[in-house]
Amino acid sequence: MILLVTPSDRAGECATALHGATGEEVNVAESLPRAATLLRAGCYSAAVFDQYLVEAEPREADTTLEHLGTAIPVQVNLAISGVDRLVRDVRAAVQRRKREEIQARQSAIGRLQSELNDTVTALLLSSELALDTPELPLAASERIQSVHELVKKLRHQLESTGITRVPEKAAGA
After folding, report:
1. Residue environment code for 88-120, b if the CB has 16+ CB neighbours within 10 A, otherwise e
2. What is the DSSP string of 88-103?
3. Strand runs labelled E in the chain
4. C or N terminus of the chain, fewer CB within 10 Å?
5. Amino acid 164: pLDDT
6. Is the dihedral of CA 110, 115, 118, 120 positive or negative?
7. What is the pLDDT of residues 47-84, one digit of tens each?
8. Where are the domains of the chain?
9. At 161, phi and psi to the nearest 5?
10. Percent of the chain having pLDDT more than 70?
């Protein structure tokens, strides 16, 4: 969903063009206080601000920007920009935001994979070393073997979801 913030008479035309170009629903706010209300109530991919409003009401603009959430702000001068330029600017901003989200997600997955690999490998090695302890009581050996099997099961579940890949050599499987 896109939020278009402008008091312009062209708001309807701009909203229709944005909807046609992006396929996203477009809500129009004629003022910054109304925009802040809509931003608090919904989830927007972009918030398009008429530069006139931002310059004429800087305090209200700052307050409204605090409510952006994950929406990417786009500022355009609708007095001199045509609809084509508006669509181009918004489309570029939304695409840039999607690329940033993909990169952030991939980075988080990479960190999670590394942490899980380390933890699963440490659990497997620790349980294998514990099982090799001489004169280990049978009850303790059975419990450690149970933990070892659970960790191996966890490793296979993680691998099947594509979250992590534990090297077989370290896993002792």
Report:
1. ebbeebbeebeeeeeeeeeeeeeeebeebbeeb
2. HHHHHHHHHHHHHHHH
3. 2-5, 26-29, 46-50, 72-76
4. C
5. 57
6. negative
7. 999 999 999 999 999 999 999 988 999 999 988 889 99
8. 2-81, 106-171
9. -90, -5
10. 93
**Pairing state of beta strands 46-50 and 72-76?**
parallel
For 135, phi then psi, to 5°, come to: 55, 35
* Token pair 């045509």 in the structure block, residue: 82
The closest of 111, 1, 90 to 45, measured between CA atoms, is: 1
* The pair of three-digit structure tokens given for residue 160, joined into one six-digit string: 């099947």
Instruction: Report in angstroms the alpha-carbon separations of 89 from 51, 59, 79.
Output: 13, 25, 15
Six-digit token string for 21 = 């170009």
Distance CA 141, CA 107 (A): 39
Give the whole-angstrom CA distance, residue 53 versus residue 31. Answer: 8
Q: Is the pTM of this model over 0.90?
A: no
pLDDT at 87: 95
The H-or-E segment that residue 68 falls in is none
Query: For residues 127 and 70, what is the distance between their CA atoms, to the nearest angstrom?
Result: 44
